[in-house]
Amino acid sequence: MSIATPSSPWRTRAAIPGLVAAEAISVIGGRMSFLAIPWLVLVTTGSPVKVGVVAGAETLAYVLSGVLAAPLQDRIGSRATSLLSDLGSAVVMGAIALTGQLGFGVLIVLSSLAGVLRAQADRSKNNLLKPLMDAAGTDFTRVSAAREGVLRTSGLIGASVGGVAIAAFGAIGAIWVDAASFLLGAALVAFFVPDPARRDGEPRKSAPAEPYLTALRGGFVYFTSEPLLRAVTGMLFFTNLFNQASAVVFVPMWVLTVLDSPVALGSVAAAYAIGMIVGSVVFATLAPYLPRYSALVFGYFVGGAPRFLVFALSDNLTVIVVVTFISGMVMCSVNPTIGAVIYQRVPGPMLARAGGIIMAVAMAGIPLGGVLAGLVVERLGFVNGVLLSSLLYFAVTLTPVIRHRVWRELNDAGARGPTTDPAAALPRGYGLAATALGPRVTLRYTDGEWTLHARSGLRRLAPRRVLRAKTAAHALAQLDAPAVHEAVRELARHEHDGAGREAARLRADLARMEFAMSQINVGLRPSHLP
């Protein structure tokens, strides 16, 4: 099979969609195995504890390998790592399907290996996105938001398809489908995604590889030297912690105590997911025109603590679903903003190592969230536990405001505007977004007065100023817009006619005044005068 060279225009345009499609398929397959492997363990062993052990082994391997294998990924290359990891994951999934019923120890080993390979596949695809965005000249935040929406949609599809596949083919059949998804993802990367280590088909000269421990230490040194990266990583840790607390404790507890309906549990979860998807579509369009710092702070303030607080204040499912949906919509600005800044702040040689550290710290909040939420509810009760968690979450979301000098560097990373390349078509929403949120200067004529306004989004750039008619006419004359010129001429004719009528009225008033004065003078003349 012949593959187009990296310099071909169609491949440049298709590289990012091809990579995101590969990630989406991987997410769908991962969701299926997330359901199928625990089901296999439960069916073969009947032990919920062993289900937790297998899931924990895969998660632990996923997190640790993201950090420890990053220097090796730098040596192999992101594209090669992605292909090898996907192919290896397909083999491991096949091995689980064939031998998973033979013994619990074998299943733990294979699940751990699956976690290692899945981590490398995910991280390498994530790292491939940066050079592709550089080559396409597109906006980092916009691509991150669109990618977030696609992956969340894939997660919903994967969970649904996984349940259907297990019902139709059994746990073993669903695992085979997951293996096939890895092969399809590898094929998409091989066909659509060029190797960033090559330019115009020629291999780049690479620097000598660092020793493993030196490279690993270098990643930690770089991460600790970047205050903004440390700050956003800490926020991701707490975001995951509180999200997990909500998903596994607060929402189920509210549903159980108020409605006792599994349908309500699914409604709340779906509302948040759909809100995130809808919000990602909107944010992907508006992202190039929004200040990143403001978008992130707004997302945390509106989508963070209020989503918790409503569970303590309301027993109405409709209110809960609406608030959860809105929270999902506004929270969609958080991950794409942070992801875009990581792409722009972290140099390519450090992306795998720094990204692995960020992922490990962020995911550490997931297991803690459920445990801490359970302890809080057990000690304080549901309502008090939710109120305390809401207060703590709000305190955490104040961090970007309190440490605004660090967090405002989100804007300094430099959002790249829409590309001017005619080969890369822009959506119509860019025009609307530029008008509504970009800089705009308004020249207005009202009641015989010309005024000038200048704004950028909701921020006023200059106060309202009154212009002389001659200055306004001169400015409008510079526009290559015949309709505007005709409107100005019509306005001038209207003003001229109005001025003529006003002059005639003044002359008539003057004549009346002169006549009245003459009558007064006649009445005041002495009678003895002739």
From TrEMBL:
One of its GO terms (cellular component) is plasma membrane. CDD domains: MFS_MefA_like. It is a multi-pass membrane protein. The keyword rRNA-binding does not apply. Pfam families: MFS_3. Keywords: Cell membrane, Membrane, Transmembrane, Transmembrane helix, Transport. The chain crosses the membrane at residues 20-42, 49-70, 90-117, 150-169, 235-257, 263-286, 293-313, 319-343, 355-376, 382-402. Residues 1-407 form the Major facilitator superfamily (MFS) profile domain. It is found in: Cell membrane. PROSITE patterns: MFS. GO terms for molecular function: transmembrane transporter activity. InterPro entries: MFS_dom, MFS_trans_sf, TM_effector. This is Putative drug antiporter protein. It comes from Catellatospora coxensis.
